[in-house]
Write a structure and sequence with these properties.
Distance between the termini: 53 Å
Order of helices and strands: HHEEHEHHHHEHHHHHHHHEEEEHHEE
Bound molecules: protoporphyrin IX containing FE
Strand content: 5-15%
Helix content: 40-55%
Strand order of the largest sheet: 1-2-8-5-3
Structural class: alpha+beta
């Protein structure tokens, strides 16, 4: 009888894996070449150098959702139509044009201009839990913060923020390829409603432009060949979706890392100037996005393996960020490490996260405020669970005792 412990790889994409993918990543990195998972038609790319090389190589195409090999049921047509105009699912040249229209709005300098808005939302959220000894950090702070900020930036009126939040959540869950049919249909319904809502809001802004992102995008659309109306709506929806749960999970995973490493928490409390470095280390050590999906656009050799057109690839940035050849003691959460800036938690290459300056600023402001207000922060001991998907690393809740 083989008494060997089952390999972490055998647990690939099981609940154990979702709770802690790092042992499996480590095993993957020790296999010299990318490996192919036949039943999933999927290459796993886990070493840092391979992840960077694949991110730079456009034969790893981002158009996996609309690839001819992937048929989409008519029932979710609206969702598919939207994805056809969504930059993160597109290769150049269309990707380049769409990204060019928004990247300025998210530059570090532009993002600084909304510092006041972020601070205001943070203060409001922390005030709303004042006097309570137990909170759920995800529900009470980490989830509402980024969505409020991005909706303000876009120019969605406060009274409509709750429904846009619900629609974007339904779209996000419904567009997961692994979701059940009924959830996909709900996502599609949300997309239809959201589009109709945006039609009205756009009509309003055309008549009376404001200083918001929506008005700026409308201006680009009206200038002619820069942006179609459908691209405009797809871009707005992408910004809302890409910008909210990711930052939520940065706050959740980051707080958990600090609580599990009390020496690092103490260091940060003593020296808040380390916050920007700590945020970067949070993205490296236990980042919100674990894998960037691609489809192989043509047959070619990569890492000694033949990649074939139509196969999928997962660029496992979560694994690359624990690669010992780049990060010494990679499994250690060390807010002062110098190499952390090389992490690929925001992606790499032409799709590098547009919203990174915004995510960083939100995280810096909220961590500073939490550490100032809460002298005591403890886990309550309730078992922590992760959302069962390989794409993101998301705590379902983070119950804390604060004081
Ligand atoms: C900690 C928070 C965040 C993380 C970890 C994160 C991570 C990522 C990653 C890994 C990618 C690359 C995807 C790929 O290569 O396939 C990406 C792209 C993107 N992110 Fe973020 N993101 C975060 C926050 C945000 C925010 C706040 C926004 C905007 C409001 C945003 C908007 C985008 C957009 C629009 C893209 C697509 C860029 C392109 O295709 O060129 N993200 N993000």
């Amino acid at each position: 009888v083989n008494q060997e412990a089952p390999s972490a790889l055998a647990a690939l994409f099981s609940q154990d894996y979702f709770n802690n993918p790092y042992p499996a990543y480590s095993e993957l990195r020790h296999i010299p070449a990318p490996i192919f998972i036949e039943p999933l038609n999927l290459w796993l790319i886990s070493r840092y150098d391979d992840c960077v090389a694949a991110s730079k190589d456009l034969r790893f195409s981002s158009e996996y959702r609309t690839h001819p090999g992937r048929l989409h049921p008519e029932a979710i047509r609206e969702m598919v139509d939207s994805q056809k105009d969504t930059m993160v699912f597109l290769d150049p040249p269309v990707h380049t044009r769409l990204r060019g229209l928004v990247h300025k709005a998210f530059s570090p300098a532009m993002v600084q201009t909304i510092r006041g808005t972020i601070q205001q939302v943070v203060d409001e959220l922390l005030r709303s839990v004042e006097g309570r000894s137990e909170i759920d950090l995800i529900r009470d702070v980490a989830y509402p913060l980024p969505i409020r900020v991005i909706l303000e930036m876009i120019g969605v009126p406060l009274k409509d923020q709750e429904r846009t939040r619900d629609w974007s959540r339904d779209i996000l869950v419904g567009s997961d390829l692994a979701s059940p049919e009924v959830v996909k249909l709900e996502g599609n319904k949300a997309m239809i409603d959201f589009y109709a809502y945006l039609d009205d809001l756009i009509a309003e802004r055309r008549k009376a432009p404001r200083h918001d992102l929506l008005s700026a995008l409308i201006e680009a659309e009206e200038a002619g060949d820069k942006l179609t109306l459908n691209e405009l709506k797809a871009t707005v929806i992408l910004l809302i979706i890409a910008g909210h749960e990711t930052t939520t999970n940065l706050i959740g995973n980051g707080m958990l890392a600090l609580l599990e490493n009390p020496d690092q928490m103490a260091l940060l409390r003593q020296n808040p100037a380390l916050i920007p470095m700590a945020i970067e280390e949070m993205v490296r050590y236990d980042g919100p996005v674990q894998t960037n999906p691609r489809v192989i656009a043509e047959d070619f050799m990569f890492g000694g393996q033949l990649m074939k057109r139509g196969q999928m690839a997962a660029i496992l940035v979560g694994a690359a960020n624990r690669d010992e050849t780049v990060f010494t003691h990679a499994d250690r959460f060390d807010i002062k490490r110098q190499s952390q800036k090389n992490h690929v938690g925001f992606g790499y290459g032409i799709h590098y996260c547009v919203g990174a300056p915004l995510a960083r600023l939100e995280a810096q402001i909220v961590f500073k405020a939490m550490l100032e207000r809460w002298q005591k922060i403890e886990l309550t001991g309730v078992m922590l669970g992760y959302v069962p998907t390989p794409r993101v690393r998301a705590l379902m809740s983070l119950p804390l005792r604060i004081g």
